[in-house]
Design goal:
Lysozyme-like; binds zinc ion; globular; 6-stranded mixed sheet; alpha/beta
Length: 214
Amino acid sequence: MTTFPVEWRPSPNYRRARRPNIRRPIKGVVLHYTATEDWDLALALLTGQAGGRKVSAHYLVGRDPGEIAQLVHLKDVAWHAKGANALSVGIEMVNVGGGKEVRGRTCQRYGRRWVPISMQGTPHKEQWGPYDLWEPFTRWQYDAVAQIMAAIRVREGSPIAAWRHSELDPERKLDPGPAFDMKLARDRFNYWRVIMEGRRPEDLDPLTSIEFYK
Ligand SMILES: [Zn+2]
């Protein structure tokens, strides 16, 4: 089983740290959507090429197979979740988020097709903002995110949490929203974890050509 190759696209938006260490272990990953249409714009925003606020994430996962980049080393702290950056790894998924049905027509912001998502079974929020339609995530996104999480789990040697950004910042954030199926993500995580635990951590080339352990 091969792991997915990861592109190294360094972002200047991070704080130097020396993780993992005993005082500041990585406790979990924070899952986000970019709220942008495409890979290029998301990458530009997260690497300081598009102006705006100084933000970043450790990983960016696009919609299509092969689209996965690391922007910040795991040993350093990325700027993706106010208040939780120091203890987490940030993963951004390219996805526009929510939309509305306007006068019976599906809003097609960015030309993306949105699907209605049931509001049942979404314990974190009673209201998902003004939106009733959400862009689905792709199978590739679930697998890529699960593989990153499994690699971190094996590397850290202790359980890691998977948080929705909206859980950590419920007043301001909706992402990754009700279209993100945490159960499916967990299933794929378990699959990749079994594969990765068959390897010695020092042989684990999680994702690539870049040095995962830095
Ligand atoms: Zn977010």
